Amino acid sequence: MSSNTLKYLDFEILDDPAMLLDGNIVLYGAAEKGIWVCKILQAIGVDILSFADADPNKWGTKVCNIPVLSPQDMRSSLLIKTGKKYVISCIENTNESYQFLSELLGRTGIPVGYISFWGIDFYLYSHKKLLTSFHKNAAELFEQQRAIDYVRYTQFALDTLRAAAQKTNEVLILQPGKVGSTSVTMMLQSSGIPCIQTHRLSYPKYILGDRLSEVWESAAKRIRHGHNKIICLIRDPLSKDYSAFWQSFTFPVERYRYLPILSSNLQEMYEGFLKAVMNGRGEEEKHGISLPLSWREEFDWFDEELKAHLGIDVYQYPFDREKGYTVIRQDSNELFLCKMERLEAAIPALEVFLNTGVNLKLERKNAALAKSYSMAYRAFRRQVKLNKDYINHYFQGNSKVDHFYSKEDQEKFIKKWEDNIE
């Protein structure tokens, strides 16, 4: 091990369920995520040495009956321990925690392993069946967390529903997932422009069940019959699918749906996920369990949402692939349709569309590099293999992709991933 870096172990822990059983473990971050990890690890018989936290108000207290230390005191406590040592980061920004802990622990020469929150969380869920079969308390904690996650996401869906039901002059940011909607929303909000962000007008039965379908339809009807200014982005499909994969296996309500193909073999998982996306509205089967598809292919989304609910068939309108955007006006709807890759250059046209100025600073709020899986994202990005059938699906005679992206654009996308293509 290098004397000035921590050893990154997210992938090693996925393949070794017993790795933590005989180690000295510190949890960095004594907030909600840290408490969740601590309870589960305790339930499966793993001893926790301490928490460490940057908040001085927590130092000297106990969480889950575990002492909370300052980072410097945590460092000292690890120095005197023998055996394996691990720091598990329980904060969202992996890059931030890894850099800080590397500076704090790296130059001591102490062999310390680093596990991100993504790593420990993914480890727990990928080995959930094994862990819960031996530990009843762990099974109960998983079910409690599942209930909490669904309550939170249902509340998020209800908030979107409420905004849609009360919609007046708000701009509607309606587009496929993982193409920059959060960044656009923050850009508009920072410019004082009221907006509503959603990925669908169709009813999300897989989240809300049957109980709110009539209420949802009433809100969707209000939008369909109202005057709407709509912003919609499109994105390089290879990058979009890759981002959607990570969302599916890290965003709790999505992860539960894909548990049957959860595995420490991420390549196998990625292929299963892509198969589900490429099958459109079909289902992926593994071990006799059906996986209702929530992530749709980006270019089918336009038919399933814009055309089905607002009558806008974007493929019947010309699209300037060089400028990277177009404005479609149909009935009472105005649509600003733009490539994500060209959004910054299209800001002046967007200002004309909105009839107001916008903050030119594009906040990459939802960017993968600020996520708990950022290091795994980069490592897996270097290793993942894409088969030719998948590449050809998008870039060989796909009229929908051709509508938005020139052959030159498509060649650039392929070149970006050329080291990953089998």
Describe the model.
The chain is of the alpha/beta class and 422 residues long. Helix content is 47%, strand content 14%. The strands form three sheets. The protein has a seven-stranded mixed β-sheet, sandwiched between helices. Helix 2 runs antiparallel to helix 7, helix 6 crosses helix 7 and helix 7 (136-165) runs parallel beside helix 10. The radius of gyration is 24 Å and the shape is globular. The protein starts with 6 loop residues before the first strand and ends in a 6-residue tail after the last helix. The relative contact order is 0.11. Mean pLDDT is 88; it is low at 281-293.
Quick one: biggest sheet? 7 strands, mixed
Which residues sit in consecutive blocks of at least 5 with pLDDT less than 50? 281-293
What is the straight-line distance between the termini? 32 Å
Q: Looking across the biggest beta sheet, what order are the strands in?
A: 1-7-6-2-3-5-4
What proportion of the residues form beta strands (DSSP E)? Answer: 5-15%
Contiguous helical run count: 19
Structural Rg: 24 Å
Instruction: Estimate percent helicity.
Output: 40-55%
Which whole number gives the mean pLDDT? 88
Kindly state the number of beta strands.
14
- Structural class by helix and strand composition: alpha/beta
| Shape, per Cα inertia axes | globular
Topology readout:
Blueprint: E1 7-8, H1 10-14, E2 24-28, H2 32-43, E3 50-52, E4 62-63, E5 66-69, H3 71-79, E6 85-89, H4 94-105, E7 112-115, H5 117-126, H6 128-134, H7 136-165, E8 171-174, H8 181-190, E9 195-198, H9 205-208, H10 213-224, E10 228-234, H11 237-248, H12 252-257, H13 266-278, E11 283-286, E12 289-292, H14 298-310, E13 325-330, E14 333-339, H15 347-354, H16 374-383, H17 388-395, H18 399-404, H19 407-416
Parallel strand pairs: 1-7, 2-3, 2-6, 3-5, 6-7, 8-9, 8-10, 10-14
Antiparallel strand pairs: 4-5, 11-12, 13-14
Helix pairs in contact: 2-7, 6-7, 7-10
